[in-house]
Amino acid sequence: MFIKRARPRPSARARTRDVEDEEPAASSPLAESGAAAAEEGGEDEAGSVLNRVKAKKKGMKGKGGRLSFAGDVDSGDSSTAFKQKKSLLSQALRASTPIASSQAAAASSSQSYSAEYLSELKAATPTRAPAADDDDDSGNLSRAARDKYASVIDADSAAGIPDPVAIAAAKNRRKAVVEAKRHGIEPGEDFISLGKEPHPESRLMREEDEGEDGDEDLADYTGANDRLYLGKNANKRAAQRLKGEIGELIEDHEMESESDEETREWERSLVERGGVQQDAPKPQKVKTAGYIPTPIPASRPVPTISSAVGRIEQRMAALKATTEEHERNLENATRELVLLEEQERDLRKQVESTEGKRAWVEEFQGWVETLGHFLEEKVPLLDVIEKDANRFAQERAERISVRRAGDDSDDLALVLGVAANQTRPEEQSASESAPNSDARKIRRQAHADRRARRRGIVAAPDDDGLSTDDELDGDLADDYEAAQHEIERRVHGLLEDVKAEDLRDPEVGAAVRFAEWRKRYPEEYEGAFGGLSLVQAWEFWARGEMVGWDPVRSDATLDSFRWYRGLYEYSRPRMEDDDDDDAMDLEPDVAPEGDQAVEMVSKLVVPNLLSALEKYDPYSARQTRKLRDVVDFVGMLLGEDHRKYQDLVRCVIGVYSSHIASLATAVAGAAGPIATRAPPYNPAARSAMQRFVRRRIKLLANLGQWRRLALDVKDLTARVVSLTLRPMLAKTWSEGGGDEMGAKVLAVAKELPPNLVQFLQTGR
């Protein structure tokens, strides 16, 4: 069950009082009609409340007091009566003004102003506005409380005849009490009993019905009426509308604030006009204290010398401890100040060093970029020059190799025969391929003439075959020399348009800058592998210096190049304190990054040597000696265990191995069963056999120089004797001079197998 709280109804007394409050004050001397109304009111006081109400209504219907503002008094029948409504402040003023007396009423009615009446009026008129009195004389209640709870106070205090509504409410309460007692329920003030009969509607009351403030009333604040707008224009219009509504609310609030201010100003003016003033705060009286005598201090004993000395000593000890503490603090502060000054100096040095480092790095980076542009332009031109130089050297080596192969073929044809599958461009017919053909005779004569021109004497039979014969003919030699001069001219032309000295000479540019980097910032230099970077930058000038350098024919050695000397000196920097004569005589120590000349040899020289071995003539003792010196120098720099050094040695032995294999194939073809046999007796066969064997002796002698570096030399020596010399010596052993040549071969060949040694000694 739900109990519905009944709203309080104003009593008859309260309604009557409300009506009475609307009447003008009876004691006001402003209008005569007011006095008459007061007299009529006095006559009706003996009547009942209902009579007073009826009388008041009747008086309101009649002619009332009028106020005229510059109008005609007699024309009041047709004009509307003006009735001033008194505020609570005016009513309180009327109640608190003690002017309503019998003498005043008589004087008012008679319109006489005597001296006594005037003096009474003057005495009754206050010289200042009366203070607002909030206390009620009868009930000790403030006027504000009476104004707010007037109906309740009147209902409790006033006794009057209840109206029908109050009677009906009392009957309902009594009936509810009887029903509650019948059901055994203790009734409360808001108890409402419900009957047992069925109800067509639910007895539960909705929240909005009970409070009359449901969601519909708060829809503007809860967002229930908000809509979701679709489209750009709709959202724009909604935003404009919302902006306008917010502006209207702001304007309304400002207007309400202004209206409230005006209302307060108007009420304040009415209060001042009515003569009611608030009590000013009364100043508090300052109570002056009377004479207070100074208290007499208690008597103390006279201090002794010992106690005074003790206090002085304690004070001195405290001062001494304080002084020592201050001195320690001063020392600590001084020490910290010194440390701070040192730190400041260090920071300044670091800042200066960092700024100098930044400037130097920017300058070095600019030079590196310039060097990069220079190399991008010049390196492709250098590649073309190197390719042409290698092509010329390869062509020269091929011509010499082909000519030596032709000499061997001619000698084999005179001793053993002609191979069946041998075809040469100059031997197209069977008559020309014969051992004693004119073409072979012409080649043998040209070979003899070359030896004669080289030696300056007529060819000697004993020395035939021992000469290297690694030179070109006259016209070809001149062409080769002209090509070499052209290569040198093109190399020098690479730097003709370069004016910067640091780009023309790496010892002035790259070496100086990298040495400064190593000296200034050694940690960054080692971390960035500055030495390897220098080798990479110096590679261009090293390649240009070695263009046309043939390691097997040139007299120049590796340590004679400028790049080698520059890198060697760069890798062994002299210290600043090495100014004495003894230090100048000693060779400086190698830098921590190592010898950069070794890095250049490993990176550039070894690949060039591997390419130069394709032009190496294994029959030339001079080329073999030069090549052996270069290989030993590389081994000394890199070490014999270095991978690139071992690859170089294997490549040298590979040249001998491939040449011996091709020579063995040629001998086997000339001595084969299907080969064209040589004539049974040929006076030139003996000299041909000697020339052939002498060339093999030179091959064995050159091969023996690599015996310490390679283990395959012993096997290759045995293959030369068994595959190339044995067929020739076996056929000419008894009558053709084979025994003599066998002894010479045995003197050159070392560590031969026993069967080959026996053959060279006995011919079997």
From TrEMBL:
Keywords: Coiled coil, Nucleus
Residue ranges, annotated region (Disordered): 1-84, 124-143, 188-221, 249-303, 420-469
Source organism superkingdom: Eukaryota
Any single Gene Ontology cellular-component annotation: U2-type post-mRNA release spliceosomal complex
Acidic residues: bias regions: 207-219, 253-264
Predominant cellular place of this UniProt entry's protein: nucleus
KW Coiled coil (keyword) present: yes
Compartment(s) where it occurs, according to its Swiss-Prot or TrEMBL record: Nucleus
Coiled-coil annotated residue ranges, if any: 309-357
GO molecular function, one term: DNA binding
Biased composition (Low complexity): 25-39
Family matches, as Pfam families: NTR2
Bias type Basic and acidic residues, positions: 196-206
Positions with biased composition (Basic residues): 1-14, 53-64, 441-456
Compositional bias (Polar residues): 420-436
GO terms for biological process, alphabetical: spliceosomal complex disassembly
Official protein name in the record: GCFC-domain-containing protein
Annotated source species: Cutaneotrichosporon cavernicola
